[in-house]
Each structure stands twice: as structure tokens, then as C-alpha cells.
Amino acid sequence: MAIPPTLKLIPRGLMGREFLGAVRAVLAATLLSGIALSFASCANPGATLTNVMASDPAKPYLGRTKTEIIACAGFPSASIQTDTGEVLTYRYKGAGPVPGAAKKAEKTSKKKGLFGGDAGRRSDKDWTCSASLTFQHDRLVRVRFAHKDVDSPYAYQAESNPEKAEAMRKAKTPTCTFSLPNC
């Protein structure tokens, strides 16, 4: 019987027990390294969970309908229509937007602003964070949130007073969290 051409590349000594021993050694090394990696990743499962949640705090809400979100968060501060849906903007203080008290009926003689709101008057003065919720085809697809007092990390370079510039450079960046506590 003739040896197939592909087997002619393997030296004769490796076609028997030595070849099987080499294969077993490679498989054993692969298995042991996989086990070692799995134990290393389980060293601190709490930190792993925290990192996953910190990476996208809006993930539990993605895919919900606009009606479900409004039921949890209340009516937005602003909204804008897009080609495929709508963007709702919430202004809030604390963990996330929650429904507020119902607005009182106002007299119709008040001057209205360009976009229908009260001209020159803000009713939500004490907010610190803003979240934009993007809906496409009535489903939440993206959430972006930020603190209202965030400055560019390079703003200190425009300051002419060196002490103020250094204080600006060392100042902590204000942060926000996002959650829908009533969902």
C-alpha cells in the first residue's frame, strides 16, 4: 500500500506513539491554560459585575418603548423628532429622572417662547444632569447623559491668571449617574 502524499511530509517517527504523545501534550497545555484563565477571571466577580454595569448603566432600559420610559421617568424637558423616531431630553438631579409633580394650570395670558415654553423663565432651575434618550421605531436605542457644569479639560489654557489656571487644571470633573429608579 502506498503512503498518501500529504503524510509523506510527516517524518516516519511521528506517525506512531510519539505523534499521539505530542498531540496529548498540546491538548493538556491548552486545557490547563484555559482553566488558569477561568480561575483568574473569577478572582473578583464583584468587580467584574461593577465594571460591566459601569460601562453602560442604561443597558437595562434599552429596547423599552417610549410609553414605558415616560411611565418611569415622567414627561421630558424637551423632545425633538428625527427621521426614524424621537429624542427625549430629561433634566434631573440625583440618580436619574423621576416623574415630578403635575404642573399647575397657568393663565393663557402669559407670553410664550419661540418653542412654546414660557419666555425668559425656567421651571427646572435646580437640575444638575441632562440625559438624551434616543428612540427609533418607538424603542429606546441609546442614552447619553452628562453634568451641566462640565468644562473642556483644556479650558484652563485660556485662563490668563496662573493661579486660577492651575486650580482649573486640578479641579475634579463633575459626573452624573443614570438610572430610572421607578422602572
Notes on the protein architecture:
This protein has two domains: 11-41; 57-100 and 126-183, Beta-lactamase Inhibitory Protein, Chain:B, domain 1 (2-Layer Sandwich). The protein is 29% helix and 16% strand. It has four helices and four strands. The protein has helices spanning 17-41, 45-55, 66-73, 162-170; strands at 78-81, 85-92, 129-136, 139-147. A four-stranded antiparallel sheet has the order 1-2-3-4, with helices on one face. The radius of gyration is 30 Å and the shape is flat. The termini are far apart.
Quick structural gist:
By secondary structure, the chain is an alpha+beta fold. It has helices spanning 17-41, 45-55, 66-73, 162-170; strands at 78-81, 85-92, 129-136, 139-147. It is flat.
Distance between the termini: 74 Å
CATH topology of the largest domain: Beta-lactamase Inhibitory Protein, Chain:B, domain 1
Report the uncertain regions: 101-109, 118-122
Number of strands: 4
The helicity comes to 25-40%
Task: Give the averaged pLDDT, no decimals.
Answer: 74
What structural class results from the helix and strand content?
alpha+beta
Strands of the largest sheet, in order across it?
A: 1-2-3-4
CATH C-level label of the largest domain: Alpha Beta
CATH architecture of the largest domain: 2-Layer Sandwich
Radius of gyration: 30 Å
SSE series: HHHEEEEH
Our count of helices gives: 4
Strand content: 15-25%
Strand count, sense and closure of the main sheet?
Answer: 4 strands, antiparallel
- C-alpha geometry: flat
What's the number of domains?
A: 2
